[in-house]
């Protein structure tokens, strides 16, 4: 078959058209390539709200350490002295519950560099992998830690790999001596948990105010101790017995709260409290400073008490672990630990600090019991299954159905937390 007869002129024009198109396309592609290569990279601007001014030098993480502690747990003059000694600014944050401490320790913004928590709180943080390991070799003053105290805190932190013990105290009875004498009889000193758990006694004290710390890990062991049952019992029937004991005096209890127990004892709106030794000591101090004639005392009931600890740890979210170690090491100096004890009433875990502790504290076996007696006291460390059951029961017990607290005779509006009194000059020592 013959090929079609295509005019020669028309074929040459088609070829020239295709050639021109290819040349123009190649030139266009090359031009775009050159433009893209030479053009500056586009910048993505943050929304206006996300753009912050440069912080002042003293607020940058390099020159500061952020500390998270429970309410009323830190002596502010200690932090001021640390800043004067090191040049590092301390940013102090506080929390009221273990749940708050967990949330703040894991915060992506403003995460603490150091956190001071109870043994139960520390275990909760460690269990969800929020804490760094602390090498004792990084702390010069780790040698000052009392090994007897460190041996007890391993129930919360095996081998003490994530924490350093600083303070410890007990849960006992804080009371207004005059108001109890008026209702229970002259000269009566409540040396037993019966002052709280006996329904007749509780009813006599209801009009002057009974307050209990809001802590299932603390309140169940003291109820079990009063009943003669093991504080660490995992038996459901024992937890049920403790629950029924609390229910029997529930109508006489004005308030379940750990947050304002110091102020209420100091002001006289509460005459009996299941509280920590530090709470009672600070209440007595605040009443004295405010000029209130409230004789606040503290007793370890004969049936037994519960030991509480304050431990130092470094969250994984810390942006300044080096500064965190400097603060922890500073707090482990004997004279500094003594300042904490003098301000808050808790004993400390630092050897050699007794020399600097106020006589009114170190000579009081109720505030600073002998370690031999400490061995007989319960720990706040229930098994997870029984802890969950206690938490559920406690939510039912402390439902807000009680009448409001009675007003004190002098009706002070509030008792301000005092600044720690000036301490004598510290002796110079190697750092």
Q: Explain this structure to me?
A:
The protein is of the alpha/beta class and 431 residues long. The protein has 2 domains: 59-162 and 309-374, 3-Layer(aba) Sandwich (D-Maltodextrin-Binding Protein, domain 2), CATH 3.40.190.10; 170-305 and 380-397, Periplasmic binding protein-like II (D-Maltodextrin-Binding Protein, domain 2), CATH 3.40.190.10. Helices cover 40% and strands 13% of the residues. Strands 1, 2, 3, 4, 5, 6, 7, 8, 9, 10 and 11 form an 11-stranded mixed sheet that branches. Helix 2 links the parallel strand 1 (64-70) and strand 2. The protein is globular, with a radius of gyration of 32 Å. The relative contact order is 0.16.
Annotate the secondary structure layout.
Layout: H1 8-38, E1 64-70, H2 76-86, E2 89-95, H3 98-105, E3 114-117, H4 119-127, H5 147-152, E4 164-176, H6 177-184, H7 194-197, H8 199-205, E5 210-212, H9 216-226, H10 236-249, E6 255-256, H11 261-267, E7 272-276, H12 277-289, E8 296-299, E9 306-313, H13 321-331, H14 334-344, E10 347-348, H15 359-362, H16 371-374, E11 378-379, H17 384-397
Parallel strand pairs: 1-2, 1-3, 5-6, 5-7, 9-11
Antiparallel strand pairs: 3-9, 4-7, 4-8, 4-9, 4-10
